[in-house]
Amino acid sequence: MEVTQAITANLNTKEVFKLIAEKVPEVFGVDAATIRLLDSSGKRLILRAASGLSESYLERGPVDAEESVLKALSGTPIAVYDAADDPRINYPDAAQKEGIQSILVIPITIRSSINGVLRLLTKTPRQFDKQEIEFATALAAQCGIAIDNARIYEEQQRQLQYFKALYDIGKTVNATHELDRILNLMVERLPQAMDLKACTIRLMTSDKKGLELKAAYGLSQSYLERGPLDHELATFYIMKGEPVLIPDATVDIHTLYHKEAESEGIGSVLAVPIIIEEETIGMMRLLTAEVRYFSDADINFAMAVGEQCGVAIQRAIEFQKIQTG
Asked: What DSSP line would sit under 53-88, residue for residue?
Protein backbone atom coordinates (compact mmCIF):
# COMPACT_ATOMS: atom_id res chain seq x y z
CA MET A 1 0.00 0.00 0.00
CA GLU A 2 2.83 2.42 0.85
CA VAL A 3 4.63 1.72 -2.43
CA THR A 4 1.43 2.03 -4.46
CA GLN A 5 0.59 5.33 -2.76
CA ALA A 6 4.10 6.66 -3.40
CA ILE A 7 4.20 5.84 -7.11
CA THR A 8 0.60 6.80 -7.92
CA ALA A 9 0.92 10.17 -6.14
CA ASN A 10 3.66 11.30 -8.52
CA LEU A 11 2.83 12.64 -12.00
CA ASN A 12 6.38 12.95 -13.30
CA THR A 13 7.20 9.89 -15.42
CA LYS A 14 10.93 9.95 -14.64
CA GLU A 15 10.19 10.16 -10.92
CA VAL A 16 7.62 7.34 -11.20
CA PHE A 17 10.17 5.06 -12.90
CA LYS A 18 12.79 5.94 -10.28
CA LEU A 19 10.38 5.26 -7.40
CA ILE A 20 9.36 1.88 -8.82
CA ALA A 21 12.97 0.80 -9.35
CA GLU A 22 13.90 1.81 -5.80
CA LYS A 23 10.78 0.90 -3.79
CA VAL A 24 9.83 -2.48 -5.27
CA PRO A 25 13.17 -4.14 -4.31
CA GLU A 26 12.60 -2.94 -0.74
CA VAL A 27 9.24 -4.73 -0.65
CA PHE A 28 10.61 -8.00 -2.02
CA GLY A 29 13.97 -7.97 -0.32
CA VAL A 30 15.83 -8.25 -3.62
CA ASP A 31 19.07 -6.49 -4.58
CA ALA A 32 18.14 -4.81 -7.84
CA ALA A 33 15.40 -3.99 -10.31
CA THR A 34 15.01 -2.76 -13.87
CA ILE A 35 12.05 -1.37 -15.81
CA ARG A 36 11.93 -1.68 -19.56
CA LEU A 37 9.06 -0.45 -21.71
CA LEU A 38 8.33 -1.01 -25.38
CA ASP A 39 8.95 1.94 -27.67
CA SER A 40 6.19 3.36 -29.88
CA SER A 41 6.94 0.76 -32.56
CA GLY A 42 6.14 -2.00 -30.05
CA LYS A 43 9.29 -3.86 -31.09
CA ARG A 44 12.08 -2.51 -28.91
CA LEU A 45 12.47 -2.48 -25.14
CA ILE A 46 13.94 0.71 -23.71
CA LEU A 47 15.49 0.80 -20.24
CA ARG A 48 13.58 3.40 -18.23
CA ALA A 49 15.00 2.94 -14.74
CA ALA A 50 17.25 0.68 -12.71
CA SER A 51 18.61 0.30 -9.19
CA GLY A 52 21.34 -1.83 -7.64
CA LEU A 53 23.18 -2.60 -10.90
CA SER A 54 26.42 -1.41 -12.50
CA GLU A 55 26.49 0.56 -15.76
CA SER A 56 28.50 -2.19 -17.44
CA TYR A 57 25.78 -4.75 -16.65
CA LEU A 58 23.00 -2.45 -17.82
CA GLU A 59 24.89 -1.87 -21.08
CA ARG A 60 25.56 -5.56 -21.73
CA GLY A 61 23.23 -5.57 -24.76
CA PRO A 62 19.55 -5.74 -25.75
CA VAL A 63 17.29 -8.22 -23.96
CA ASP A 64 14.42 -8.07 -26.47
CA ALA A 65 15.03 -11.59 -27.77
CA GLU A 66 15.76 -13.18 -24.38
CA GLU A 67 13.38 -16.08 -23.77
CA SER A 68 12.51 -14.96 -20.24
CA VAL A 69 11.60 -11.50 -21.56
CA LEU A 70 9.60 -12.84 -24.50
CA LYS A 71 7.60 -15.06 -22.14
CA ALA A 72 6.90 -12.11 -19.85
CA LEU A 73 5.84 -9.96 -22.83
CA SER A 74 3.37 -12.70 -23.73
CA GLY A 75 1.88 -12.41 -20.24
CA THR A 76 3.70 -15.15 -18.32
CA PRO A 77 5.87 -14.25 -15.30
CA ILE A 78 9.21 -16.07 -15.38
CA ALA A 79 11.33 -17.06 -12.38
CA VAL A 80 15.00 -17.92 -13.02
CA TYR A 81 16.84 -19.61 -10.14
CA ASP A 82 20.42 -19.68 -11.58
CA ALA A 83 20.94 -16.82 -14.06
CA ALA A 84 24.48 -17.91 -14.91
CA ASP A 85 23.34 -21.38 -15.99
CA ASP A 86 19.86 -20.92 -17.45
CA PRO A 87 19.29 -21.08 -21.25
CA ARG A 88 16.53 -18.46 -20.95
CA ILE A 89 19.14 -15.82 -20.06
CA ASN A 90 21.14 -14.31 -22.94
CA TYR A 91 24.09 -12.91 -20.98
CA PRO A 92 25.03 -15.54 -18.37
CA ASP A 93 28.66 -14.33 -18.18
CA ALA A 94 27.52 -10.77 -17.46
CA ALA A 95 25.15 -12.07 -14.77
CA GLN A 96 27.94 -14.08 -13.16
CA LYS A 97 30.32 -11.11 -13.23
CA GLU A 98 27.63 -8.89 -11.65
CA GLY A 99 26.93 -11.52 -9.01
CA ILE A 100 23.33 -12.01 -10.13
CA GLN A 101 21.90 -15.33 -8.97
CA SER A 102 18.10 -15.31 -9.41
CA ILE A 103 15.75 -13.21 -11.55
CA LEU A 104 11.98 -12.69 -11.58
CA VAL A 105 10.59 -11.20 -14.81
CA ILE A 106 7.09 -9.73 -14.60
CA PRO A 107 4.98 -8.18 -17.39
CA ILE A 108 3.91 -4.55 -17.02
CA THR A 109 0.39 -3.96 -18.30
CA ILE A 110 -0.83 -0.52 -19.37
CA ARG A 111 -4.43 -0.13 -20.54
CA SER A 112 -4.97 -3.88 -20.95
CA SER A 113 -1.84 -4.29 -23.12
CA ILE A 114 1.57 -5.56 -22.06
CA ASN A 115 3.95 -2.63 -22.52
CA GLY A 116 7.11 -3.80 -20.81
CA VAL A 117 8.77 -5.87 -18.11
CA LEU A 118 9.81 -5.44 -14.49
CA ARG A 119 12.85 -7.52 -13.54
CA LEU A 120 13.75 -8.24 -9.91
CA LEU A 121 17.29 -9.54 -9.36
CA THR A 122 18.99 -11.13 -6.36
CA LYS A 123 22.63 -11.75 -5.52
CA THR A 124 21.80 -14.82 -3.44
CA PRO A 125 19.94 -17.86 -4.85
CA ARG A 126 16.21 -17.49 -4.39
CA GLN A 127 13.27 -19.66 -5.31
CA PHE A 128 10.30 -17.33 -5.87
CA ASP A 129 7.12 -19.06 -4.73
CA LYS A 130 3.67 -18.77 -6.30
CA GLN A 131 2.43 -16.21 -3.77
CA GLU A 132 5.45 -13.95 -4.36
CA ILE A 133 4.99 -14.14 -8.12
CA GLU A 134 1.29 -13.28 -7.82
CA PHE A 135 2.09 -10.36 -5.53
CA ALA A 136 4.81 -9.09 -7.92
CA THR A 137 2.36 -9.34 -10.81
CA ALA A 138 -0.26 -7.33 -8.91
CA LEU A 139 2.31 -4.69 -7.98
CA ALA A 140 3.54 -4.49 -11.60
CA ALA A 141 -0.08 -3.81 -12.62
CA GLN A 142 -0.17 -0.91 -10.12
CA CYS A 143 3.09 0.34 -11.62
CA GLY A 144 1.45 0.27 -15.05
CA ILE A 145 -1.42 2.43 -13.79
CA ALA A 146 1.02 4.92 -12.23
CA ILE A 147 3.05 5.13 -15.45
CA ASP A 148 -0.10 5.66 -17.52
CA ASN A 149 -1.39 8.40 -15.20
CA ALA A 150 1.95 10.22 -15.35
CA ARG A 151 2.05 9.93 -19.13
CA ILE A 152 -1.47 11.33 -19.52
CA TYR A 153 -0.65 14.27 -17.24
CA GLU A 154 2.61 15.03 -19.06
CA GLU A 155 0.89 14.80 -22.44
CA GLN A 156 -1.71 17.32 -21.29
CA GLN A 157 1.02 19.62 -20.00
CA ARG A 158 2.90 19.27 -23.28
CA GLN A 159 -0.17 20.18 -25.28
CA LEU A 160 -0.72 23.28 -23.15
CA GLN A 161 2.91 24.20 -23.66
CA TYR A 162 2.51 23.75 -27.42
CA PHE A 163 -0.60 25.93 -27.55
CA LYS A 164 1.28 28.68 -25.73
CA ALA A 165 4.34 28.29 -27.98
CA LEU A 166 2.18 28.40 -31.11
CA TYR A 167 0.56 31.62 -29.91
CA ASP A 168 3.94 33.17 -29.01
CA ILE A 169 5.51 32.17 -32.33
CA GLY A 170 2.53 33.57 -34.24
CA LYS A 171 2.61 36.82 -32.31
CA THR A 172 6.35 37.26 -32.89
CA VAL A 173 6.22 36.33 -36.58
CA ASN A 174 3.27 38.65 -37.27
CA ALA A 175 5.29 41.56 -35.91
CA THR A 176 7.62 41.52 -38.93
CA HIS A 177 7.47 41.15 -42.72
CA GLU A 178 11.15 40.29 -43.13
CA LEU A 179 11.34 36.73 -44.48
CA ASP A 180 14.85 35.95 -43.21
CA ARG A 181 13.96 37.17 -39.72
CA ILE A 182 10.74 35.10 -39.69
CA LEU A 183 12.57 31.89 -40.65
CA ASN A 184 15.39 32.48 -38.16
CA LEU A 185 12.86 33.12 -35.39
CA MET A 186 11.14 29.82 -36.11
CA VAL A 187 14.27 27.66 -36.15
CA GLU A 188 15.37 29.23 -32.86
CA ARG A 189 12.01 28.96 -31.04
CA LEU A 190 11.08 25.39 -31.99
CA PRO A 191 14.06 23.71 -30.25
CA GLN A 192 13.10 25.57 -27.07
CA ALA A 193 9.44 24.54 -27.29
CA MET A 194 10.08 20.88 -28.18
CA ASP A 195 13.41 20.20 -26.42
CA LEU A 196 15.26 19.65 -29.70
CA LYS A 197 18.91 19.68 -30.69
CA ALA A 198 18.33 21.62 -33.90
CA CYS A 199 15.93 22.85 -36.56
CA THR A 200 16.24 23.70 -40.26
CA ILE A 201 13.97 25.23 -42.89
CA ARG A 202 14.41 24.60 -46.60
CA LEU A 203 12.35 26.22 -49.36
CA MET A 204 11.94 25.42 -53.03
CA THR A 205 14.22 27.34 -55.37
CA SER A 206 12.63 29.86 -57.76
CA ASP A 207 12.90 27.34 -60.63
CA LYS A 208 11.29 24.66 -58.40
CA LYS A 209 14.07 22.18 -59.15
CA GLY A 210 15.37 21.71 -55.64
CA LEU A 211 15.37 22.72 -51.98
CA GLU A 212 17.56 25.50 -50.63
CA LEU A 213 18.57 25.91 -46.99
CA LYS A 214 17.10 29.18 -45.69
CA ALA A 215 17.52 28.96 -41.91
CA ALA A 216 19.22 26.65 -39.41
CA TYR A 217 19.89 26.42 -35.70
CA GLY A 218 22.02 24.02 -33.62
CA LEU A 219 24.01 22.38 -36.42
CA SER A 220 27.62 22.60 -37.60
CA GLN A 221 28.48 24.13 -40.98
CA SER A 222 30.00 20.84 -42.13
CA TYR A 223 26.74 19.00 -41.46
CA LEU A 224 24.67 21.67 -43.21
CA GLU A 225 26.94 21.32 -46.24
CA ARG A 226 26.79 17.49 -46.35
CA GLY A 227 24.83 17.52 -49.63
CA PRO A 228 21.36 18.07 -51.14
CA LEU A 229 18.25 16.44 -49.68
CA ASP A 230 16.25 16.53 -52.93
CA HIS A 231 16.64 12.80 -53.60
CA GLU A 232 15.99 11.53 -50.08
CA LEU A 233 12.92 9.33 -49.69
CA ALA A 234 11.83 11.55 -46.80
CA THR A 235 11.77 14.58 -49.11
CA PHE A 236 9.59 12.70 -51.60
CA TYR A 237 6.87 12.17 -48.99
CA ILE A 238 7.21 15.64 -47.49
CA MET A 239 6.73 17.30 -50.86
CA LYS A 240 3.47 15.36 -51.09
CA GLY A 241 2.35 17.14 -47.93
CA GLU A 242 3.02 14.30 -45.46
CA PRO A 243 5.03 14.45 -42.21
CA VAL A 244 7.90 11.96 -41.98
CA LEU A 245 9.19 10.34 -38.77
CA ILE A 246 12.80 9.17 -38.73
CA PRO A 247 13.41 7.40 -35.38
CA ASP A 248 17.11 6.74 -36.01
CA ALA A 249 18.78 9.10 -38.47
CA THR A 250 21.93 6.95 -38.57
CA VAL A 251 20.23 3.98 -40.28
CA ASP A 252 16.79 5.00 -41.57
CA ILE A 253 16.07 4.29 -45.25
CA HIS A 254 14.31 7.66 -45.61
CA THR A 255 17.65 9.48 -45.25
CA LEU A 256 20.98 9.37 -47.13
CA TYR A 257 23.61 10.85 -44.83
CA HIS A 258 23.85 8.28 -42.04
CA LYS A 259 27.54 8.73 -41.16
CA GLU A 260 27.14 12.50 -41.09
CA ALA A 261 24.15 12.18 -38.74
CA GLU A 262 26.13 9.93 -36.39
CA SER A 263 29.11 12.30 -36.42
CA GLU A 264 26.83 15.28 -35.69
CA GLY A 265 25.15 13.46 -32.81
CA ILE A 266 21.68 13.37 -34.32
CA GLY A 267 19.22 10.80 -33.01
CA SER A 268 15.81 11.32 -34.58
CA VAL A 269 14.21 13.63 -37.13
CA LEU A 270 10.65 14.83 -37.60
CA ALA A 271 10.18 16.50 -40.99
CA VAL A 272 7.02 18.42 -41.89
CA PRO A 273 5.93 20.23 -45.05
CA ILE A 274 5.58 24.00 -45.41
CA ILE A 275 2.48 24.67 -47.48
CA ILE A 276 1.01 27.73 -49.20
CA GLU A 277 -2.47 27.41 -50.73
CA GLU A 278 -2.27 23.59 -50.82
CA GLU A 279 1.14 23.66 -52.53
CA THR A 280 4.20 22.37 -50.67
CA ILE A 281 6.91 25.00 -50.96
CA GLY A 282 9.44 23.58 -48.51
CA MET A 283 10.06 21.61 -45.36
CA MET A 284 10.96 22.01 -41.73
CA ARG A 285 13.17 19.41 -40.05
CA LEU A 286 13.23 18.99 -36.27
CA LEU A 287 16.27 17.10 -34.97
CA THR A 288 16.95 15.51 -31.57
CA ALA A 289 20.18 14.46 -29.87
CA GLU A 290 18.63 11.16 -28.73
CA VAL A 291 16.42 8.55 -30.38
CA ARG A 292 12.89 9.83 -29.86
CA TYR A 293 9.51 8.52 -30.94
CA PHE A 294 7.49 11.67 -31.55
CA SER A 295 3.93 11.64 -30.17
CA ASP A 296 0.79 12.73 -32.00
CA ALA A 297 0.93 15.99 -30.02
CA ASP A 298 4.49 16.58 -31.27
CA ILE A 299 3.49 15.93 -34.88
CA ASN A 300 0.34 18.07 -34.70
CA PHE A 301 2.29 20.95 -33.18
CA ALA A 302 5.03 20.71 -35.81
CA MET A 303 2.44 20.60 -38.61
CA ALA A 304 0.68 23.65 -37.13
CA VAL A 305 3.98 25.56 -37.02
CA GLY A 306 4.64 24.47 -40.62
CA GLU A 307 1.28 25.91 -41.66
CA GLN A 308 2.00 29.09 -39.73
CA CYS A 309 5.36 29.30 -41.45
CA GLY A 310 3.65 29.02 -44.84
CA VAL A 311 1.24 31.86 -43.99
CA ALA A 312 4.11 34.03 -42.73
CA ILE A 313 6.13 33.41 -45.89
CA GLN A 314 3.17 34.29 -48.07
CA ARG A 315 2.61 37.54 -46.14
CA ALA A 316 6.29 38.43 -46.42
CA ILE A 317 6.32 37.79 -50.17
CA GLU A 318 3.17 39.86 -50.71
CA PHE A 319 4.56 42.69 -48.58
CA GLN A 320 7.80 42.62 -50.59
CA LYS A 321 5.82 42.87 -53.84
CA ILE A 322 3.91 45.89 -52.51
CA GLN A 323 7.15 47.55 -51.42
CA THR A 324 8.87 47.01 -54.78
CA GLY A 325 5.71 47.70 -56.80
From this structure: --HHHHTS---TT-HHHHHHHTT--EEES-GGG-TT
CA angle 145, 151, 155 (to 5 degrees): 150
Per-chain mean pLDDT for the chain: 87
For residue 132, the domain's CATH number is 3.30.450.40
Whether 164 is covered by a domain: the verdict is no
User: What secondary structure does DSSP assign to 161-225, as a single string?
Assistant: HHHHHHHHHHHHHTT---HHHHHHHHHHHHHHHHT-SEEEEEEE-TTSSSEEEEEEES--HHHHT
pLDDT score for 271: 95
Residue 76's contacts (CB-CB under 8 Å, 6 or more residues apart) are: 107
Give the domain-ending residue among 122, 152, 182: 152
Residue 171: CB partners within 8 Å, gap ≥ 6?
Answer: none
Contact (Cβ atoms closer than 8 angstroms) between residue 152 and residue 170: no
Which pLDDT tens digit goes with each residue over 207-259?
888 899 999 999 999 999 999 999 999 999 999 999 999 989 999 999 999 99
pLDDT reported for residue 181: 84
121 shares its domain with 225: no
* pTM, full prediction: 0.64
What is the enclosing helix (H) or strand (E) of 230? none
pLDDT confidence of 175, banded at 50, 70, 90? confident
Give the domain extent around 264. 174-324
**Helices of type H across 203-281:** 221-224, 233-238, 258-264
* Orientation angle between helical segments 13-28 and 130-173, nearest 10 degrees: 170
Q: How many structural domains comprise the chain?
A: 2
